[in-house]
Amino acid sequence: MRFFRHGDVLAIAIPESLRKTAGVQDGDDYEFFEIQKGVFALVGKKELASKFPAGALAAQATAAPNPQLAALEKTGFLVVETELEAKRLSKELEPQVKGHSVMGVRGFDKKYYIATRTFLAEAGEKVQKALLKGEMTLGQACVATKMPQDACVAALSILKEEGEIFEKRKGYYALVR
Asked: Which residues of the chain have a pLDDT value below 70?
């Protein structure tokens, strides 16, 4: 398959063999969904309507427990790989974000770090205590705080965003004094 310009829209060319196998006809209506960055799904509107009557998708989304939210509750932090996931979680966590009990940042590594205020208080205290000895790399901070790397990166990223610490030079963190 390939994309091509057709007037002022972008169209998809579907090979004839796939068109026949899928039963796609000229004029069929489809919905286009981005599952994650670079991964897309085409779903026929008839199929979508028959499997998910109006409102069923929203009801299903709210009824199904989100494993990421359970992980956030358990560990106090999350590392999110894609912008799409981060936006979805942002909507789900909107009341907690507005209430300042959950915060998040996008790191320079293009990952999103989300943490609870409770996690950040505990992890932040460990990180700041370790940095009292002087600047440290991520690895040194992990050892000094006895935190897993993901947890340490989450804490460092959010503390940096909040102005508590800074990256003195690439990969070296220090306290703001």
From this structure: 33-37, 48-65
d(CA 123, CA 26): 58
| Beta-bridge mates of residue 150 | none
Q: What is the DSSP track for 37-106? A: TTEEEEEEHHHHHHHS-TTHHHHHHHHSPPHHHHHHHHHSEEEE--HHHHHHHHHHTHHHHHTTSEEEEE
Give the residue carrying structure tokens 């310009």.
5
User: Does the predicted model carry a pTM greater than 0.90?
Assistant: no
Residues 138, 120, 109, 147, CA torsion sign: positive
Question: Which of 30, 49, 25 shows the shortest CA–CA distance to 40?
Answer: 30
Residue range(s) defining the domain that contains residue 142: 65-175
Q: Are residues 73 and 44 in the same domain?
A: no
pLDDT digits (tens, 9 = 90+) for 98-129: 888 999 999 888 999 999 999 999 999 999 99
Q: What is the CATH number of the domain that holds 32?
A: 2.10.260
User: Does 102 lie in the same domain as 54?
Assistant: no
Q: How far apart are CA 48 and CA 43, in angstroms?
A: 7
